Amino acid sequence: MRMINLENKMPTVNAYITFNGNCEAAFDFYKSVFGGEYRDFNRYGDLPESENPEEQIPSDYKNKIMHISLPISNETILYGGDAHPLEAKIPFGFNIALSINTESREEAQRIFQKLSENGSITMPIADTFWGAYFGMLTDQFKINWMVNFDPA
């Protein structure tokens, strides 16, 4: 049996659920079940405006949730958001990703590169407007991943 050294920091993995417009109602329900307060709460209206008209968020969608997080224990955070309005609706069963949070930018890059081998990158890992180093991919086994390093 291999023993794990808990003194060394390791990446954490949490669930990320994508909704088709009802994320806020779902997370209000989860908050009533688990308690606590939202750590992150961003709406699509918070995104910087795109200069490309084809990439602009429709006005009726700006109040939808782009990203939300609810800590439910010392080590577990439930993440979520509504599907991007310019993409197809997400079928349930395909609406969950594993979100891995790393201790360094280099670790995020290494994990992203390894997970994407023989898979497909849906959002290249890069610096984001919210300050994280973040990317998304589907691995060779059709599992969705979000890789994140947040220096803050």
Tell me what you see in this structure.
The protein is α+β, with helices and mostly antiparallel strands. It has helices spanning about 25-35, 105-115; strands spanning about 10-20, 40-45, 65-70, 75-80, 95-100, 120-125, 135-140, 145-150. The chain has an 8-stranded mixed sheet with strand order 2-3-4-1-5-8-7-6, with helices on one face. Strand 7 and strand 8 (about 145-150) form a beta hairpin. The model is unreliable at about 1-5 (pLDDT under 50).
Q: Quick summary of this structure?
A:
The protein has 152 residues and is of the alpha+beta class. Helices cover 16% and strands 34% of the residues.
| Percent of residues in beta strands | 25-35%
Shape: globular
What's the average pLDDT? Answer: 87
Helix content: 10-25%
List the helices and strands and how they pair.
Layout: E1 12-19, H1 23-34, E2 40-43, E3 65-71, E4 77-82, E5 96-101, H2 105-116, E6 120-127, E7 133-138, E8 144-149
Parallel strand pairs: 1-4, 5-8
Antiparallel strand pairs: 1-5, 2-3, 3-4, 6-7, 7-8
